[in-house]
Amino acid sequence: MSRLLARFFGVTSQHAAARTAVLPRRIRVVTRVVSTSHGLQSLTRYNETTDWQKKLSPEEYVVTREKGTELPFSGIYVNHYEEGMYHCVCCDAPLFSSEAKFDAGTGWPAFKEAHGTWGRDESHASIFRRPDNSLGSPGTEVLCKNCDAHLGHVFDDGPDPTGERFCINSVALKFKPRENNNLENNGQN
Ligand SMILES: [Zn+2]
């Protein structure tokens, strides 16, 4: 019996030693996955110490960091229908796909839904909504989930199936054509 126990403990401690030996490598692997994974986790979370005035043009700064609005029909993406992704001009998070873009005739880029939306679920999208009464009536502001950039507003007069219209400032966006996206992803991997 004592020999069996000794053998049992011997095996157990061997396993424990093996686990200890493996552990540092596992930790390294997990750390690597978090720091290089796609989407939001790979992006730097900007905070109040980020010097946006240095990083952005004056127009980009006023719109995204001071909740400004570009003049209607002034933005470069109003009548832009190339295939690709519209990213946050501040932090590069992918915000809206060209497939969701439509012509609302209002003078600002319009989208039916945010990239990553599943039905009404926006938990995987890079945007979030916040109540905003600055337009003179109860409204909803749209911001970048990663860096809090002001992007525009969302209204309930959009086309089916969402019935929503994301009215987004061109200067808050940075368009990347689909081919360039693929090249960039390959380069990062
Ligand atoms: Zn952002």
TrEMBL record:
Pfam families, per the entry: SelR
Record EC number: 1.8.4.12
GO annotation terms (biological process): protein repair; response to oxidative stress
Cross-referenced PROSITE patterns: MSRB (PS51790)
Catalytic activity: [thioredoxin]-disulfide + L-methionine + H2O = L-methionine (R)-S-oxide + [thioredoxin]-dithiol; L-methionyl-[protein] + [thioredoxin]-disulfide + H2O = L-methionyl-(R)-S-oxide-[protein] + [thioredoxin]-dithiol
Cofactor list: Zn(2+)
Cofactor note as given: Binds 1 zinc ion per subunit.
Keywords per UniProt: Metal-binding, Oxidoreductase, Zinc
Coiled coil: none
Molecular-function GO terms, alphabetical: L-methionine-(R)-S-oxide reductase activity; metal ion binding; peptide-methionine (R)-S-oxide reductase activity
GO cellular component: cytoplasm
Family under the similarity heading: Belongs to the MsrB Met sulfoxide reductase family.
Task of the protein: Methionine-sulfoxide reductase that specifically reduces methionine (R)-sulfoxide back to methionine. While in many cases methionine oxidation is the result of random oxidation following oxidative stress, methionine oxidation is also a post-translational modification that takes place on specific residues.
PANTHER family xref list: METHIONINE SULFOXIDE REDUCTASE (PTHR10173), METHIONINE-R-SULFOXIDE REDUCTASE B2, MITOCHONDRIAL (PTHR10173:SF37)
Annotated protein name in UniProt: Peptide-methionine (R)-S-oxide reductase
Organism: Betta splendens (Siamese fighting fish)
Gene from which the chain derives: msrb2
